[in-house]
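Q&A log
Question type: sequence-to-structure
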Amino acid sequence: MATALWVAVGYSLAFSDGNGFIGGLGNVFLVGMTATSLTGTVPESVFMTFQTTFVIITPALITGAFADRMKFSGLLIFSSCWILLLYVLVAHWVWGGGFLGDADVLDFAGGTVVHINAGVAGLVAAIVIGKRVRHGTEPFPPHNLVLSVIGASLLWVGWFGFNAGSALAANLTPGMAVAATRIATAAAALSWMLVEWTLRRNRV
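Response status: OK
Response body:
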């Protein structure tokens, strides 16, 4: 659904020529994109597809705030409206030639467009929906630690694409992004393991 919305109108509103607040409609349904058109030094088709990964993952981050508390139909409606009314705006502000980009706001790999944007939306959604039924009267432990580790591992792999790919080049910048991503994630995993062992007194 996110991909369809992005191709139909989202990419145009985020990255086509417009004003400092919102892009235009010049690339609706990818009009104007050809096999030879470039964004910087990469094919525009590659850039558009790369940006699709961000518009897909950002609503997915929000769902953690209301998992099991919203109907699937409600999730689709919420995500559709959020992508078209909020995500494309912030993406244009920062990456698409909007006023934040003009003010030299630096967002490498989505700190603002993805994480701050999704975090605020998740907080608002959680406040609107309210507390989980039986919250505070019964525990809600993670149902499957193995799936949690697998999910984190998939994210780790994906981060290399997000972080290094955001340079839109093959030079020193993505090289440093890959190194930082590898080291930071390894340190985080070891820290989590040590805290779990300390607090829960588990043994190897």
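Response note: Residues 58 and 114 are 5 Å apart (CA to CA).
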